[in-house]
Amino acid sequence: xxxxxxxxxxxxxxxxxxxxxxxxxxxxxxxxxxxxxxxxxxxxxxxxxxxxxxxxxxxxxxxxxxxxxxxxxxxxxxxxxxxxxxxxxxxxxxxxxxxxxxxxxxxxxxxxxxxxxxxxxxxxxxxxxxxxxxxxxxxxxxxxxxxxxxxxxxxxxxxxxxxxxxxxxxxxxxxxxxxxxxxxxxxxxxxxxxxxxxxxxxxxxxxxxxxxxxxxxxxxxxxxxxxxxxxxxxxxxxxxxxxxxxxxxxxxxxxxxxxxxxxxxxxxxxxxxxxxxxxxxxxxxxxxxxxxxxxxxxxxxxxxxxxxxxxxxxxxxxxxxxxxxxxxxxxxxxxxxxxxxxxxxxxxxxxxxxxxxxxxxxxxxxxxxxxxxxxxxxxxxxxxxxxxxxxxxxxxxx
Length: 398
Description:
Layout: H1 12-23, H2 27-39, E1 46-52, H3 58-65, E2 88-91, E3 98-102, H4 113-119, E4 127-132, H5 138-149, E5 153-158, H6 161-168, H7 176-193, E6 201-203, H8 214-224, H9 227-236, H10 242-267, H11 274-293, H12 298-308, H13 312-316, H14 329-343, H15 348-354, H16 362-394
Parallel strand pairs: 1-3, 1-4, 4-5, 5-6
Antiparallel strand pairs: 2-3
């Protein structure tokens, strides 16, 4: 059986600090303390450096990764010539702790990888995306080797794949899978010739980011990132494939235990009304995060409508979660009613086994399970709504 520690990163020291701070506070202050604590996980920074030759699609990738079109507010300037003369940072529109850096172009006659990395302040990036719009050249491998030498990670991305597919479709017996495999093999073969052992190339279209190798690139980045940054990466990715949709759901599921544990901790303090008030505040914040991350908030739905040609009414008609009409105390308490019925069926001993620090405090266990069930129900409904909206917008499985 999984233990609480398997999916909760709160330390004993953290718990003691929270206990001490809450025990001396009034109701509003205690609620704010809990909310501030939950915000800490959103302060983990992720810095991504995007580099490549001029005109390779760097800026388009920067925009697509952040879910923005080229002419939207906050987008990176794109064009056939180099528009980036020094590192320029672009914040994610929803997660300000995610910073995507559009780096100056490489490939000039006097290019030197070590000097370039010093110029762009190499140490601040968690990893690099090295983009080429056709074949990778010596400047790409120089940069890759220097990045490896300095102990950081990079990913080769072959951009503008949609152009290649459009051109190949004119040929008889067009086979998209074979075309993609041929492009990937040609890129990897070229990289081996110029000194990269066992290269891996990801095929990406900035205009159609959800197609081709986005899922494989995401999996590789997630696998190689430090654990505390994986969730940040996943939530920052635009919700444009069913696989990303499912992974976001799993990431939030892991976080439910942490959120519910704080609720259980509050329930151990004899402040009238504190537990229910905190439960509502915690659940409201989490559900709002779900809607934003899955792209079901109104601004995200509006963007999806513009790109898909669907009306916002059409997309909202696919959403069945009871919370879609508003996340407020009344709608949250309706979840609490259902959860309370389910909690009554749960053995308290099992609850306590999951929360050893609470010990035998039944109130803590009941609060824990209540919030777990409420959030799981809301998450399942919202993830299903996101899946249905995505499939309707794209017109097929993605």
